[in-house]
Amino acid sequence: MCGRTALxxxxxxxxxxxxxxxxEEYTPRYNIAPGDGLLAVRNDxxxxxxxLTWGFLPEWAEDSGQGPTPINARCEGIDESNxxxxxxxxRRCLLLADGFxxxxxxxxxxxxxxxxxxxxxxxxxxxxWSRWTGDGAERWTCTILTTEANGTVGEIHxxxxxxxxxxxxxxxxxxxxxxxWRSVFDPYPDGLLRAYPVSSRVNDSTNDGPGVTExxxxxxxxxxxxx
Length: 227
Known about the structure:
The chain has helices spanning 11-18, 85-90, 151-154, 166-174, 178-182, and strands spanning 5-7, 29-32, 37-42, 45-54, 72-74, 92-97, 99-104, 111-117, 123-134, 137-148, 159-161, 163-164, 193-197. The model is unreliable at 220-227 (pLDDT under 50). The longest helix is centred in the C-terminal third of the chain and has 9 residues, at 166-174. The protein is globular. It has a five-stranded antiparallel beta sheet with strand order 2-1-7-8-13, with no helix packed on it. Strands 3-4-10-9-6 form a five-stranded mixed β-barrel. By secondary structure, it is of the alpha+beta class. The relative contact order is 0.19.
């Protein structure tokens, strides 16, 4: 599961890291929620970034306002999914980020955690994109693939986004066949990530400043619920 993410890295760093031109409208975001835009590198335009709305609207949907618009897609069986199989075959993307958030603990006392690389560097999720047209409108949307959690994330949640190491990014965008694309679905190396508690201010996506990334004392420690 990945229901909140972030990307506030300097655009020059992003451009160098991913070898792309960053769109001029790029704005650092510390608390990105479903329905917001995610900075993406599509497989049909691998040298530049675009903004895709987070929440997948399939191209064959009759109405943009009806039916689910999933923010996540399980990597297991993705090539057999009625909703995602076509996008898996032809519309893959990198979704850029530098951290994401998960919540853990008993109901009413859930503690938010930020998960990021130990070195704070940006990375990419494996994503799928869609272009929907209808009623004179056009919508570009996306979803983040998820896999089993690694050890770090597993203390908080049993799923995590498919985070790509640098060498896997090209495989995901340009790999020769489904076996190559599926090879990137392993959980991210545990030693490269850290998780730490942050303020419950992150629960409200309108709180979108650097303060939501600051570490705080755990409000309901993991030891309290046996994670």
